[in-house]
Amino acid sequence: MTTLKNNDFSDIAYNRKSIRVYDETVKISQEEMLEMIEEATLAPSSVNMQPWRFVIVESDEEKANLKPLIRFNTRQNDTSSAMILIFGDMLCYEFGEEIYDKAVAEGKMSQEVRDQQIGAIIPYYKNFTKAQMNDVVKIDSSLAAMQLMLSARAHGYDTNPIGGFEADQLAAAFGLDPERFVPVMVLSIGKAAEVGYDSVRLAADKFTTFK
């Protein structure tokens, strides 16, 4: 087991600085972007329904399309290698059979267990209220978003999570059904061109209770 010193974790896991400006000469290839997303989607999700969906906005044309929807974060949009739009799929259970069939094919689940799980999970998800499903897909997609930030860091890139965007317009602006795809977060990604802004954290014992 590796023993971390006091300051090691922030360097290995994620730099807390808020990056607003990126090196515009750095462009991440689609192959490497997909590699980072593959790593991100190793994150856990409820009954493995994997509701996260990613739209990579990298062209000048599509960045111009995004710009008015993120009015307070335009510097990231203008300078980053890409802006990653993360959505939660409200009908993610439609992929349930494909996911569980793959688990059977790879020897990670028996056919009997697969049939039992699918028989129980799909009707359960279909009976969720819109609010319940919204909570599930946002929580699960946020786990993937954080893991994507860690993956990007391991690849030598910087990210900035953005929650300030026109949530009611984002999906439709990029050709997605707004009733099905719920915007969760926007991540800017690239190589930082500035040190960034430091932030502080309260001590762990301030918000932790042992029982």
Automatic annotation (TrEMBL):
<protein>
    <submittedName>
        <fullName>Nitroreductase family protein</fullName>
    </submittedName>
</protein>
<comment type="similarity">
    <text>Belongs to the nitroreductase family.</text>
</comment>
<dbReference type="InterPro" id="IPR000415">
    <property type="entry name" value="Nitroreductase-like"/>
</dbReference>
<dbReference type="Pfam" id="PF00881">
    <property type="entry name" value="Nitroreductase"/>
</dbReference>
<keyword id="KW-0560">Oxidoreductase</keyword>
<dbReference type="GO" id="GO:0016491">
    <property type="term" value="F:oxidoreductase activity"/>
</dbReference>
<dbReference type="InterPro" id="IPR029479">
    <property type="entry name" value="Nitroreductase"/>
</dbReference>
<feature type="domain" description="Nitroreductase">
    <location>
        <begin position="15"/>
        <end position="191"/>
    </location>
</feature>
